[in-house]
Amino acid sequence: MNKLKHSMNSLNVLLFALLACFATTVMPGRIACAANTAPTRVIAYYFHGDYRCQTCTTLERLSRKAINEKFSKELESGTLAFKSVNVDEPENRHFIEDFGLYTKSLVLVEMQGDRVVRYKNLNAIWTLWRDEPAFEKYVQKEVAAFLKEANAAKSSK
After folding, report:
1. CA 30, 31, 32: angle at the middle one, nearest 5?
2. Which of 74, 81, 106, 128 has the most beta carbons within 10 angstroms of its beta carbon?
3. What is the pLDDT of residue 151?
4. Cα 142 to the center of its chain, rounded Å
């Protein structure tokens, strides 16, 4: 009887731990389950609002193109993702404060699980949007450097 009681307690503890991990993964929040073992990945966020002028849509198109052309392997493996996010939607407004946004932006974010490790706003897209080759070169250089640093940090752990 004591063995059965001990087994049931162990099972309850295990189920509780699994439920806690599931809850922190699925529910919104800043806590990640097993953050030290969570994979590192980089997200290139293009942030915009409800109003999308021609420049805004061009910035997104050029950003997506520059990343897709040079980083297909990283996109396929999931170590890099491109996401377009409307910060005028209530569930996305936190990004404005999280990354100090004041206009449409391309922001590289290093994530470990659900935790932001670091980020970089690529402000020069605004001065380069009329020069597609320069824009592409800038974005690709910045993404490559950001990925390299993320991989170096991951390797040193």
Report:
1. 120
2. 106
3. 86
4. 15
Determine the residue type at 149: E
Record the pTM.
Answer: 0.74
Sheet order of strands, 80-86 included:
80-86, 40-48, 105-112, 115-121
The structural domain count of the chain equals 2
**CB-based contacts of 36: which residues, under 8 Å, 6+ apart?**
157
Q: What confidence tens digit (pLDDT) does each residue in 66-83 have?
A: 999 999 999 999 999 999
CATH number where 65 lies: 3.40.30.10
Question: What is the tens place of the pLDDT at every residue in 128-151?
Answer: 999 999 999 999 999 999 999 998
Nearest Cα neighbor of 56 from 4, 125, 116 is 125
3-state SS class at 108: strand
DSSP 8-state code for residue 47 = E
Q: Which two tokens stand for residue 104?
A: 């449409």
